[in-house]
Amino acid sequence: MAPSTATIALASTTALAGVLYTYTPLGDHFEARFLLPIPLIVLLLSFTRFKSTLKAAWLFCYNCFLRPLGLHSDQQSRLDSFYTGQADVYDTTRNGLLRGRRTLLRLSVAHLKVLRAHAENQNKRLVWVDIGGGTGWNIEHMAQYVDLSMFDAIYLIDLCEPLLNVARKRFEKNGWTNVHCLLQDASGFVLPEWKQLRIEPQGSVSFITLSYSLSMIPSYFTLLDRIEHVLDPDDGLLGVVDFYTAAKESSEHEKAIGGGGKKVGWFSRWFWQIWFDFDHVSLSPGRRDYLEYRFGTIKSYNGRNKFIVPFIVRMENSPYYIWLGTPRTRSTERNRHAFEVEGGNTVGNLSAPGTPLAPTRPTTPLSLIGKEAGEDEMEVEELSLGLSRAVSVDEMHAVLGERKEGEKEGRKNIVLDVMPPLSSFHYQIMHPWRLPYYEAKIHKAFRTFVYSFTWEDPDEDMRHLQLSKEDSMFVITSAGDNALHYAIAAGPKRIHCVDMNPCQGHLMELKLAAIQSLEFGDFFKLFGDGKHPEFRQLLDCNISPYLSSHAYTFWRINSKAYHSSFYRRGYSGWALRLAKWVFSFAGVSDFVDQMCECETVEEQDKIWREQIRPVILNKTFVDLVLSNPVFCWNALGVPMNQRAMFLNEGTAFEFVRDTLDPIAKTAVLKHGAYHFLLCLLGHYTADSCPNYLTREGFSTLKANDGALMDAFRLHTDSITNVLKGLVPGSITRAVIMDHLDWFDPGSEDARDEILAMYRALAPGGMVFWRSAARLPWYCEMFKDQGFELQPLGVRAGPEKAIDRVNMYASFWRAVKV
User: What stretches pass through the bilayer (predicted)?
Assistant: First the structure.
């Protein structure tokens, strides 16, 4: 690659020099002569760079593949021997292989800032220990994201003298006086300040990182136990990035702890384990398993390296993980109260019955377990209350990924009482918006979000909801636009947002976290313009501390969603992309733009009827779109049962006509009728957008450290399950959109849901819904359960809309009598 790069640089510069020479005045020979050497200079620099790269590649290949390994009695001598000849080119040759390091640093800084800002003791020393930091690459690059003077002390601990020499030169060059290199065995590291400043080691360290070093340290049990001992029990942060392999998919609870997607194919697993074994790098799952047992997980991301080694192998299947955690001694009481008491959700909490709010912590490291049941009539000390079962030593070592040499199989069972950590939701450091959930089969049906925006008109809702600060709401999450509108308009004390699609919850989480962490300009770029060139940077450096691990992973994988038009992504994005293509093909794109700039409904209606309506409202096009069940679901979010409901009352053409014809003469798109403005333009404008995208609405939600947003609890479950978990009579208002249209007519599941709704509602509580039918079949079920019904709006034809969206044929209210 280097020669071709040099060639391109040379050709480009030569061409540039030629252009400059052409435009030089004819008599100015001095200026022309001055430009002539430029190609020669670039050639020399390119050759020097190529020579340097070639030298680095040779040193890497020789030391890693050709140099005799030799015999070494200990880890230190083996490391010194291996890195002596390549220490100076280590960073150059590992940059593409060791992925995720920058991400780890960005995430760590973001979480550290939030932890420090909310710490009870603002005067605590801030100490960072980088274990196995080698050449000091991590510390130098951390300076790109934060002023290193914020740390009272930074310690780089490594057992390899050649790499530490590189680090010392690097730190001296930068003039960092608070950075110290220590040649020590990481499993027993000792900080000089403990003796010099008479500091008690336990809980004295704020931040520890392990960057591709955990897999290289043989005594990892001892190391992780020591880290847990010295890390601040309340606000300590541990960051790890490393290689890994996994033979099988995680259990439900393991996914809730460390995320899914761990499983590695057999060939990649076999190849990388053998490859790294040559360098004494262990990819067995025991290290990560013990890490996730010993600490509470805050963030966990499983990635694949896409680095390419020319002519050798494409390493896209090289798995790595990025992990942030905290000591399990850190209190989870606030989050558990939010989940279990306020949300009726105990997923991810495996503590013993009778102690629902007791903070969990390990009491004995697995490295100290060794007695058999019955041996010397002693029982193994309990690790914690909770999950009890008998496990054999064989099973234990299978879990930890290794067996001591010479150990026999088939030994007696030992009785353990092992309490796994709570889910990653419990250890998230800020607002407990998202309630824990286990991945279910139905979640796999949702590859992404169905709705990137909410179709229902919240202004029409507010006319009938009669909301106050004392209300507790139950709403369908969708894209979260209307739920945010209710919070701004009335500030109800609780808003339960429910959606079976985890991706809708991820989108709602992103909006809440972005409001909390961003300024209005960046926020509007994301959700108003629908694109932001620096989204990935914002995600890692600003938004991540406020997201659950699951939501962060989703947006990390889908970070390109904001490269162009966010609203043309997701299932609903198909419809917007189709509309854009149809308008362009029909040659009416300019009229679409003109319609969005109209100041009156009369102007709008004229353009609609004369230019746009003939393109959209023709029978052939409507039949082609709505006669396709796959398109109805994937692009419009209309399931088969709902489609059947409006077809039972008329034709598809009549439904679309009655929906669209009144819109242009109902409200001006440019000034508030933002639903169809978004569909036509692919983005909102400052004058026509949901309330949360106005500067006033944004400021209202952000005020008092996001106090209004504390009302939100995001559930990833069925409506019935969530309702059954809530305290009877705790809900005063429920907005379930068009959800009941999705059931089969006469469904007992629908009846059970309405019964659960009746149970959860307080006397006088109200349920609101919309339907594609003018008279939905389930209205009778509400009456049978003791509700009093009232239609709030029913479409009577193409002349008048029931609200600014007019997407549904009817709008209903049911009151619990």
Answer: none
Q: Are 146 and 227 contacting, i.e. CB atoms less than 8 angstroms apart?
A: no
Quickly state the pLDDT bin for 63 (edges 50, 70, 90).
Answer: low
Calculate the dihedral angle through the C-alpha atoms of 556, 558, 561, 567, rounding to the nearest 10 degrees.
-120
Query: Got the DSSP string for 642-657?
Result: HHHHHHTTS-HHHHHH
> What are the structural domains, with CATH classification, of the chain?
88-330 (3.40.50.150), 437-569+701-816 (3.40.50.150), 581-681 (no CATH)
pLDDT at 90: 67
Copy the structure tokens of residue 143: 């300076």
pTM of the model: 0.83
Which of 319, 312, 213 is closest to 272 using CA atoms?
Answer: 319
What value, to the nearest 5°, has the Cα angle with vertex 247 and ends 415 and 265? 175
pLDDT per residue over 83-126, tens digit each?
676 767 667 767 777 889 999 999 999 999 999 888 777 788 99
Determine the Cα–Cα distance for residues 15 and 641; give it in Å rounded to an integer: 65
Cβ-contact 545, 110 below 8 angstroms: yes
Averaged confidence pLDDT in the chain: 81
Going by C-beta distance under 8 Å and a sequence separation of 6 or more, which residues neighbour residue 547? Answer: 428, 509, 510, 513, 555
Instruction: Answer yes or no: are the C-beta atoms of 232 and 208 closer than 8 Å.
Output: no
Q: Is the pLDDT of residue 642 over 80?
A: yes
According to DSSP H, which parts of 528-650 are helical? 535-538, 549-557, 570-586, 589-595, 601-607, 613-616, 619-626, 629-634, 640-647
Element counts in the chain: helices (H) and strands (E) = 35, 18
pLDDT digits (tens, 9 = 90+) for 560-611: 999 988 998 877 787 888 888 889 999 999 999 999 999 999 999 999 999 9
Cβ pair 468, 493 in contact under 8 A: no
User: Which ranges in 369-473 belong to alpha helices (H)?
Assistant: 393-400, 424-427, 458-465
Which residues are CB-neighbours of 429 under 8 A, at least 6 positions away? 111, 114, 115, 118, 298, 326, 545
| DSSP assignment of 97-139 | TSTTHHHHHHHHHHHHHHHHHT-S-TT---EEEEET-TTTHHH
CB 482 within 8 A of CB 456: yes
Start-to-end CA distance of the chain, whole Å, equals 76
pLDDT band with cut points at 50, 70 and 90 for residue 638: confident
The string of DSSP codes covering 216-263 is G-S-HHHHHHHHHHHB-TTT-EEEEEEE---SSPPPHHHHHHH-S---
Contact 722, 729 (CB under 8 A): no
Q: Is 547 exposed, middle or buried (0-12, 13-18, 19+ CB in 10 A)?
A: buried
What are the helix (H) ranges across 661-806? 674-681, 695-706, 719-725, 748-760, 779-784
Q: Do residues 110 and 540 lie in contact, with contact meaning Cβ atoms separated by under 8 Å?
A: yes
The CA–CA distances, whole Å, from 18 to 15, 36, 38, 44 equal 5, 9, 10, 19
Positive or negative, the Cα torsion across 516, 517, 520, 526? negative
Report the sign of the C-alpha dihedral through residues 220, 226, 230, 234, in that order: positive
Q: Is 513 left (phi over 0), alpha (psi -120 to 50) or beta?
A: alpha
Residues 6+ apart with CB under 8 A from 251: none
Taking the CA atoms of residue 647, residue 653, residue 657 and residue 660 in that order, the dihedral angle to the nearest 10 degrees is 90
